[in-house]
UniProtKB/TrEMBL annotation:
Listed GO biological process terms: 3-phenylpropionate catabolic process
Annotated organism of origin: Rhodococcus pyridinivorans
SUPFAM superfamilies recorded: LigB-like
Subunit structure: Homotetramer.
Catalytic activity: (2E)-3-(2,3-dihydroxyphenyl)prop-2-enoate + O2 = (2Z,4E,7E)-2-hydroxy-6-oxonona-2,4,7-trienedioate + H(+); 3-(2,3-dihydroxyphenyl)propanoate + O2 = (2Z,4E)-2-hydroxy-6-oxonona-2,4-dienedioate + H(+)
InterPro entries, per the entry: DHPP/DHXA_dioxygenase (IPR023789), Xdiol_dOase_suB (IPR004183)
Protein name in UniProt: 2,3-dihydroxyphenylpropionate/2,3-dihydroxicinnamic acid 1,2-dioxygenase
Amino acid sequence: MTLALVCTSHSPLLEFNDPPPEVRTEVDRAFAQARQFIEDYEPDLVVSFAPDHYNGFFYKLMPPFCIGLEASGVGDFGSSAGPLDVPSALAEQMAQSVLDQGVDIAVSLEMEVDHGAVQPLEILLGGIATKPVIPIFVNSVAAPFAPMKRIRLLGEAVGTFLKNFDGNVLLLGSGGLSHDPPVPRLEAATGEQRKMLLGCNHPTAAARSVRQQRVIDTAKAFTRGEAGIMDLAPEWDRQLLDILASGELEQLDAWTAKEMAATAGNSAHEVRTWVAAHNALKAAAGQYTVTSEYYRPIPEYIAGFAVTTAVSVPKTAGLTETAVAAGTVRA
Ligand SMILES: O=C(O)CCc1cccc(O)c1O
Ligand SMILES: [Fe+2]
């Protein structure tokens, strides 16, 4: 049994707001490299840790974590709609195992996933149903948040379960790093917005379109330095990437939700998916090596944008040649 990991920022703005061409080229190269990494690895199963942005999970009932036993894309921001290929029996066994290991997790037989889960599947795997995928929702936008230690333990429980899987498993994490896009928040919501956050009515196409335009307008203003959202936090991002690469994930237990949001933005919580995915890899394999890393703060995407790959093999000296050739920012 071997495992591999790809973690990537997502941004619907990839389709709606271009950075300078050389930056776009760089991002495309990082994606191409991750795609090649996956193609070479030939996964039999994909386990995806991803957030949701009030398209599938709402305050009417907001679990910290949820495994989809069946799932489909909602199609926000032009992302793919329709069913994922979820191996339901295996997903249920995973849920049972995670519960048995002491991590309370919800299940959904009708999980709806948005660009947070869908975009990496599209970019890295060519679609939402090209491989069997177990989608794991990790709440990253709706306070209150699980403590970081619980995120680590979620990853550990999933990784421990995967030890017994006979085949190649690709772990995915989606989102982050530092960023503060205009996702509605309960504390600032009034009237209709509050109803939307509660999930009383599923968002209409018109409501989605208004929200989409607001994100695009904000990104354009942000790039000009005029948006009222928090700056990206490259130093925080750097620190996180270094901890993830070190494998010493317990260091993150001390990170509080409050500090994370204050330093790196309200959506920085999406890095929870990265932490869970890395610790799943560590639990299943004992140790891992980050084999490539791309990072750049990209205001046009409203994201401290990173793409990393890792494998379940002991550390060798530094990064591999492919990583260096791809121009990562790591020394
Ligand atoms: O759904 C939304 O309104 C937020 C969209 C969004 C924008 C930038 C980075 C993200 O990670 C992201 O999710
Ligand atoms: Fe997001």
